[in-house]
Design a protein that fits this description.
With 152 residues, the protein is mainly alpha-helical. The chain has helices at residues 7-14, 18-26, 43-57, 62-70, 79-140, and strands at 33-35, 38-40.
Amino acid sequence: MQKSYTIRELAQEFGITARTMRHYEELGLLAPARRGQARVYSAADRTRLKLIVRGKRLGLSLEESREIIAMYDPEHGNEQQLRRLLERVREQRVALQARLAGLQAMLAELDAVEAGCLASLADVDADAEADAEAEADAEAAPTRPARRRANR
């Protein structure tokens, strides 16, 4: 007898919600059997779900995952499926490298702005300290009474 799974078991295993699984079902990505109102997922459904979740992690759209999963053809070594997946992996890598370069440039800009802010704050702190010292010196210095000038 083949192992079957509930929606709760698979949702928990793959870290997704039951609602997400029902969405995949609505899109035709999953087709569980029914036992009354309950959905019963087969080992094949579990494998499809595993591939869908992996595709999402790789940045594939649900439609791209559907296309690649539909290419499954073990009689011919899955050559077309593997070539299409390899193509998408390479495209995704190029896109991610471009995003990474952009993020690295943004981080460098943030570092420069942070350094400028820290330098400005150091100047402000130094000015405030100098002002406080001058004020303290002025308060500590003896004051001479003002001389009155005699009216001549």
